[in-house]
Amino acid sequence: MAAAVKETVQRFTAETLKAASKQSKGCYVVPLRLRRAIKKYIRDQEDQHMKRKVLRLSESFNSIKDVNLQLAASTARELIEDPLKYVGSSKRWKIKSSYGDIGLKYRDDQTIAYVASRMPAVFSACHRVLTEVKRRLPGFSPTRVLDFGAGTGSAFWALREVWPNSLERVNIVEPSQSMQRAGLSLIKDLKNLPLIQSYGSIQSLSQNISKSERKHDLVIASYVLGEIPSLKDRITIVRQLWDLTQDVLVLMEPGTPHGSNIISQVRSHILWMEKRKTRKLAKASNQESKDLMTHKVGAHIVAPCPHDGACPLDNTGKYCHFVQRLQRTTSQLAYKQSNGVPLRGFEDEKFCYVVFRRGPRPSQSWPLDGMKFDTLKEQQHANKINRESLEIDSDDGFDSESEDTITIDDDNSKKMIKYESDINEPYASSENEEEPGDENESTRADLGGGWGRIVFSPIKRGKRVEMDVCRATNREGSEGSFGRVIVTKSNNPTMHHQARRSLWGDLWPF
Known about the structure:
This protein is of the alpha/beta class. It folds into 2 domains: about 1-25 and about 440-510, no CATH class; about 30-360, Rossmann fold (3-Layer(aba) Sandwich), CATH 3.40.50. It contains 19 helices and 13 strands. It has helices at about 1-10, 15-20, 30-45, 50-70, 75-80, 85, 100, 110-115, 120-135, 155-160, 175-185, 200-210, 230-245, 255-285, 285-295, 330-335, 375-390, 410-415, 495-500, and strands at about 145-150, 170-175, 195-200, 215-220, 245-255, 300-305, 320-325, 345-360, 450-455, 460, 465-470, 480-490, 505-510. Strands 1, 2, 3, 4, 5, 6, 7 and 8 form an 8-stranded mixed β-sheet that branches. Strand 11 and strand 12 form a beta hairpin. Helix 3 crosses helix 11 (about 175-185), helix 9 runs parallel beside helix 10 (about 155-160) and helix 13 packs across helix 14 (about 255-285). Residues about 1-10, about 65-105 and about 390-440 have low confidence and may be disordered.
């Protein structure tokens, strides 16, 4: 244990803790090439009634939400509390209809409205989640990807931004032909594209590729599970997606109570399945089964959950969700309804998500192990001694330096980033731009149980910061709790400064 503590002390300082904890983004600006692609696509459609179509699309989403909320709660409890009941019905897990047949069928007018109004926000949320996956898994670089419910390609654009040089093959499952055509139209001017294959259903994908090619490094399903009214079909699809996952599975839904409930259900189900497999293999005595258990069986949560236990927010009246602010594009400003009130230059996209990875959770020492923080009085006393020891005669030609202070300009952080005219902007050649260099390894938050997640906005009251944090309660990360963490400047000015700069969605070290 002493060696682990020593290693942790070398890895983290007060400054690197801040860098590792930061996972949220400020006001995100949609990349120029995507804004241009959307604008060109809309212009090519020459539609005269776009505002009306955007409004109708919003009404369609609301109607799906109403249908889903009318489902009997007993069905959900039955499936989640007794998943084994359905395991024996193998046919039940081979859904015959594609999700588009039981959810929302996108017509051409709805597809155009979606590109104009919703695609930038969905892209921004996907980019936020995938960026954290890259930071938390520095060695992970997917080459084969499955995008289920790809729609117009929001997740694909985000994948290109986060891993621009690693993608080799992307399989797309999208039953709407209109959505497929729109997605292909939006990417037609991009260079160095990976091999892209489109399928209408998971069954079609499985039938048309060999068994050895069905496993994907990363599988993502964004904003699609909520369009499936049947809970049993939803769980069916998630099980199929997990079977197609070789390493990482990303599931995302809108940040509503219903979206959070969907994520919570599938989270519980996948963890239950893998724990059951682990228990079975643990009983086996041969070494081959034990090796399989170590390398291939089991699952842990990469994000947002810092543990693999039951969600502590269940049955509390609260729901786990996050928010990404984005600068509205010109198409959103032009076509979104505002009831006569001018639209703000930004919007907040609320989303829920969970990221699974195969295998057991890595065992890591906690980031604050072995670290000692001075109280405010101790820091002031140390600074006084340092000033006295550094006093020198003015003849030496040096001025004594005052203590460095860091001020936070909250007003600056809220200033909006204004777009220049898309027409006047030079074409961004970022297709060939080099990816920014990776942060130092010491600034990465590992997947051990020592990093909690800040859920909801921190409450900042003078020299006191209150944060609602979901955290692991043991070193293995097998159980978790949710509670309020209070940091005061007098007790720990270093961590208080970090708490003042923390945002909803950031990590918090323990």
